[in-house]
Amino acid sequence: MTNPQAAKQQKFGTFLGVYTPSILTILGLIMYLRFGWVVGNVGLIQTIVIVLMASSITFITGLSASAIATNIKVGVGGEYYLISRSLGLEPGGAIGIPLYLCRTLSVTFYSFGLAEAILVLWPESWGHLPPHAIQIGAMVIILLVTILSGKSAGLVLKTQIPIMIIVGASIVALIIGVLTKDIHAPILRANYSTAPQGFWYVFAVFFPAVTGFTAGVGMSGDLKDPQKSIPIGTLGAVVSGAIIYLIIPLVLSITGALTIRQLADPNAGVTIWTRLAILGPWIVYPAVWGAVLSSAFGSILGGPRILQALSMDGLAPKFLSKLSKSGQPTVATWISGVIALLAVFLGSLNTIAQYVSVLFLTLYVAINLSAAIEQLIKEPSYRPRIHVPWYISLIGAIAAIVVMILINPWAFVFAFGLELVILAYLVSKKMEQQWGDAAAGIWMRVSRFALLKLNARKIHPRNWRPILLLFVRDIKDRIDIVRFAALLGQNSGVLTISKLITPDQKEDLHSRNEVAFRMQKDLKAEGLEAFTEVNIANDFKTGMYQVAASHGIAGLKTNTVVFGWSLQDASKIQELKIINNLSRSGKNILLLHFNQPFSESKDKRIDIWWGGKDTNGDLMLLLAYLIRLNRKWEKVKINIFSKVNTTQDGDSLHKKISSAVKEARMQAHIELFVRPNDSFVPVLHEVSASADLVFLGLAHNIQDFESNARFIDTVISGLKVVAFVQNNSMENEIPVIF
């Protein structure tokens, strides 16, 4: 994910780019509003337990994010980038799109909070607040932070240095203020005077105080060395915040200036700090304003960069990734600002805030799951500098889910439901991903396990599946043959399409993976699924034999090779020679020819011409059954025909065919033609000219290739679609009774 304008972008180090926005988002409004209430309700011991539990979840998530960040070259997009490059484009988008909305709405929430905090100081002598003063104030703040962040991320980040100094000064002022007043033994016991819901309710109210440490991760594309800065800055901010959060409750629990009831007052809010700290309101209010403003800046910086990354990955319009001359995602920033402004008119945001908080916590779940999965699948490419055991990351994910349920169970259901809907939509779009992810590693592990189990078992005829290999030079040119082969394998089997190239095809030789990928794109355009591969051979005849004879793995060895009847005389002879050789390797043969595409009519018809000399009829019957499994062919009428010379031969053959059809539990119309004076081909053309598909047996051990080629040309001339079948399986390998 690169952008040519990114070279002009100012890059930041660990302290300014990661640590500062992270620690300021942690030491935010909740610290000033709720710490006194927590201590007053649960006492010092349980407050410490709450801080340690909450900080442990964020620390584990920080470790998981650091592990992923140190394993890849991190680009723009922050948390979205980490998740999408680990779990894949669709899961990344399912998290990234709601995350962008959360970041953008957070600008509105913080702007409201800052407007309210400033207007608290509205002098009574000026009368009542003007109507909608808070909304107007929030809109002014949104415009201010949007303009500044759109102009320069460096300017915004530098403004956070004095804010951090003021916030730090307010904490020091609180400590000094408490120690210079009356103190007593710490309040240890819980009383839940204003939190009758109990411990977990208090924990859920407090938990948002430790979130937001990923604000620095959101600046990933603006960092000089994200692999170094993200772990150090993020974990440093989490640890620093935890230490400060352990000091503040200790200080509040020993103050004699306020009673337990005053501490536990849910309406006291910031006044607890203003009454205890030296210089009181003069230092606490600016610190609160600065903390809220910093959080707003963090959101308006992170949100547009997620939108920019979504745009660069094709999940949002391309113009949103446009950068300004200074390297800022200006368009994305202004759009984010407009959305934040519109959110002002939503009215009360308290309920929405809970949903946003829970939706944001799904990010923790995704980051931890990403790190756990990367460890579990043991990809050789996963070599992070910070190793986190998978069970630690999994504990972090489970803990985040528990917190979500504690905060609001309905918001939890909504959050995961929304992300599942987005995931399903993105998967349905079948977008093209330009990077490897853990999903491929998961399937590799599952495939390895399944193949080993399959290899350890004997494949019984009951478990027979068509494992098909189709040779084509160009999928588009032979799309009818590809569709037919896919029709046989789509419900029960596996289809592999092979393209052979020779050493003198140097362009294709050096881009084998790209050729196979283009084949996949051709299949996708037709709504088909199959494996594609490119094989090298000195010549096509020996190459086809070598590839087909040894193709497959474990219990998925190729058992049927599919050919399209050539249009050139010389190639027809060569094709029959290849078939002759392959028949000795035990591979079944399908030789196809289409004079017209498959019929789209409702009254489809398959004709099977049963010779009776070989076992080709068994395989033809099974292939007809497999075609019937397809929804468009489920009502197809199956006819079994044969030409015989005498009535006695006809009775014997009819009995044999009827027995096979009965054992196969299929319905088919059986009709034998006693035509001793007629050759086979005229009878075939007379009876099956209108059939949508005709199955015919292909002779074994062909000797005269030229005459056989002429015979095949004569046969196919009067039919719509023909499939010549040669059963080369070992005895009892094909399940007639299926």
Key terms:
738 residues; Amino acid/polyamine transporter I; Rossmann fold; 2 domains; ten-stranded mixed β-sheet; 10 strands; elongated
Overview in brief:
58% of the residues lie in helices and 8% in strands. It is α/β, with parallel strands linked by helices and 738 residues long.
Structural account:
This protein has 25 helices and 10 strands. By secondary structure, it is of the alpha/beta class. The chain has 2 domains: 4-429, Up-down Bundle (Amino acid/polyamine transporter I), CATH 1.20.1740; 457-726, Rossmann fold, CATH 3.40.50.12370. It has a 10-stranded mixed sheet, with helices on both faces. Helix 2 packs across helix 7 (199-206) and helix 2 (29-69) packs parallel to helix 13 (350-377). The chain is elongated and about 120 Å long.
